[in-house]
From TrEMBL:
Pfam families membership: NAGPA
Domain Phosphodiester glycosidase: start-end pairs: 1-41
Protein name: Phosphodiester glycosidase domain-containing protein
Organism of provenance: Clostridium butyricum E4 str. BoNT E BL5262
Amino acid sequence: MYKLGAVNAINLDGGKSSTMYYNGNTINETEGRKIPTAILVE
């Protein structure tokens, strides 16, 4: 990421509890797990 010019980066695992929520809609389906933590981007 540094070579691409990133100053900050976050590595996300993308496991079964990962959910993408955009514009009021859930983009992908999870396996019924609750999501305890969120990363918001405006």
